[in-house]
Each structure stands twice: as C-alpha cells, then as structure tokens.
Amino acid sequence: MIHIFNKGKDRAKPTFLMLHGTGGNELDLLPLAGMIDEQASVLSVRGNVLENGMPRFFRRLAEGVFDEEDLLIRTKELNEFLNEAADKYEFDRNNIIAIGYSNGANIAASLLFHYQNALKGAILHHPMVPRRGIDLPDLTGTNVFIAAGTNDPICSPSESSELQTLLENAKADVVLHWENRGHQLTREEVEAAADWFRNL
Ligand code: MLT
Prior knowledge:
With about 200 residues, the chain is an alpha/beta fold. It has one domain: Alpha/Beta hydrolase fold, catalytic domain (Rossmann fold). Helices cover about 35% and strands about 25% of the residues. It contains 5 helices and 11 strands; from the N terminus they run ββαβββββαβαββαβα. β10, α4 and β11 form a beta-alpha-beta unit. α2 crosses α3. It is globular, with a radius of gyration of 15 Å. It starts with a strand and ends with a helix. About 40% of the residues are buried. D-malate (MLT) binds next to α3.
C-alpha cells in the first residue's frame, strides 16, 4: 500500500496509523499525529480503492452503504500490511494506535471488529458501524476514542452510540466525545483526543 513512515524520537511510544477520509491521501492527517504526540512514529497509508478518482479504504455501493465483501478483503489487506510494515520499519506490531477520519475511521473500526490484535487502540473521528450481525473478538485492553457530531448527516448520533455499545460489549474501553457540529473534523475534537491519549 502507498504509505509514509516517519520514525519517531521515542520508540517506546505507540506507532500512529493514520487513515484518511474519502478523497484524501497519506499526507492529510500527518498534522494530527503531531498534535496527539510529536514523539511517536507515524505510519500513514493511502486507501487502495478509487471512487471517481478519490482514494478510499474500501468500496461502497452508495453513501453509507458499504460493499461488505470488499470491506472484508480490504480489512485483511490492511491488517497484513501492518504485519509487513512492522517487520520492515521495526516497530512494535502490538502497539499500534489507529487515527482515522470518516472512511479511514470506518476501516479502523473494521480492523477492531475482525481481528483481535490488529490495534492496541484507536481514535475514530466520525466513524460508522462497519458491519452488523457478527461476533466481535475479545477487545479487552483495547482503548478507543470516538469523536462524533450531534448534527452529523453521515454518521448519526444513534449510530455513534451503537458503535460505542458494540465495542464495549466486546470489552473495549471506549470514550465517546460529542461536538455540536456535523461531519467535519474539528480542532476541539483532536485536542480532546490528545487529552485522552495523554491519560492512557
Ligand atoms: C464511508 O463511506 O466510509 C462513509 O460514508 C464515510 C465517507 O463518506 O467516507
């Protein structure tokens, strides 16, 4: 997968896995990583799917309707890429925190839904429920921060709460942070995520 790896000053810190929104790329979220912890290593990945020229992490059939078969293939592909990247760049595979926005948050949530040890934690900005009707792995010890908007037309408040419940039922430790905004990624929610990270 097309990506950037920036080796951090402190190798004991988690590696941040940056996952952009639809139409973004691996450069978009680099400033966020610095706002959360500027000493951590950063692996920033570009989605392998193109929708009218816009990179994404998996196909969708319509807005908010995911192509489930492609979601599974792409989630596996990303998980395997993380294994390879950890070997190549010599970072701890068991200490990755995903930071994703929108479509990137959705593939991060899908990693949590399908693979027990894919991520140590995740900061999910405006995620949806990636898939319903499946048993999640035991996510004991996995920390998740969700930032949601009370007026988000893409990820409804009820869907944000549903995601929190599904992850908590799988024993993840989840914080759900609300902004009185829409789908946009706000500085305030990134600062809230930074506070959450500092207190882990
Ligand atoms: C998705 O397709 O993952 C969601 O609708 C969010 C987005 O617009 O990318």
